[in-house]
Amino acid sequence: MRGGATIQGRLFIVIGTRPEAVKLAPVIAALRGVLPVTVCATGQHRDLLDTAFADFGIVPDINLDLMQGGQRPEDVVAAALPVLRRAITATHAAAVIVQGDTASAFAGAQAGAYACVPVIHVEAGLRSDSIAEPFPEELHRRAIAQLSSRHFAPTAAAAAALLAEGIPAAAVHVVGNTGIDALLDIAARLRGDAAARAQAAAMLPSLEARRPLLLATVHRRENHGTRLADIAAALEQLAVRHGAQIVVPVHPNPAVRSVLEARLGAVPGIHLVPPLRYPAFVTLLQRARAVLTDPGGVQEEAPALGCPVLVLRTTTERREGLAAGTAQLVGTDPGAIVAAASRLLTDDVAHARMARVALPYGDGHAAARIAAILARAFLAAPRPEALHQG
Fold it and tell me: What is the pLDDT of residue 385?
């Protein structure tokens, strides 16, 4: 560690899903050599998590392997909470780091609090102002905020939301989103390494250079059922009406996979593919005319690559893209989706207005800021109770 300094215990980093791995990979890299870390994988999404670890060269120190078929968020929390609590105690953790709003992050924050260990929240303060959308993520975010003693907010709006909820200003740090760090790192790697580009391209379906390409990512829990069927109907219309190629990485959740395969599996031009490795996904974002999405991370990533975003939700906690003009909230009505996507496919002026490289969520240096703040806090060896007070 830097200057031979030591702290009592290690920073215990909880990771359960692929988005958490992607967004915490830069933090782990920035902390290594500065502070001691223990990476704990809950295995909430086992296979997807493993590929993300491989993409960023992360080897977990602890793997709980908790994934079960048909699991619900409360099942993950119930299974993870006691084993995380024991692991945090056994490793003499100085603090627990969680990211975002997953069941693993929620369980990690609770486990840290029960172990009387400070909790640090990365990507804090996102708010949709509706507990129902996204569910249960919005609930998790709000609860994690109350359990945390340090809050790394990606944007000023996220920090303002925390302050409005009574979080002390001294505990809130606006650092940017670490997902942009990861995205720009992978994009740079692809630019500079022909072998990496070839490997990413080999993971993609065969695509025609002259046909417009759309990327669609849909799996949000609140869109399951009728809404997902409506989204699928819109994608079918776009493929038929415009001859568009549409790549849809299919989430393994049966509630998603069954609908997409039934509605879109035989539609010409639509490519239903397994979840993509991150470099392959970045390659698609760089090539796509637009992305249609309901997950949150894609709303952050696409503007950084100049890819217009159509948000398939009725509300979003990532409003900075809307304000920047790089994203549009279109909901799940098939007519609205088709109209918005058709405009981007056929109107070059409308497309150019949205296809601007923008960084409303971060500049690629969030992890370095986080590491610097934590180094100042922990290498100064404050009393544990001081950390709880921010």
Answer: 45
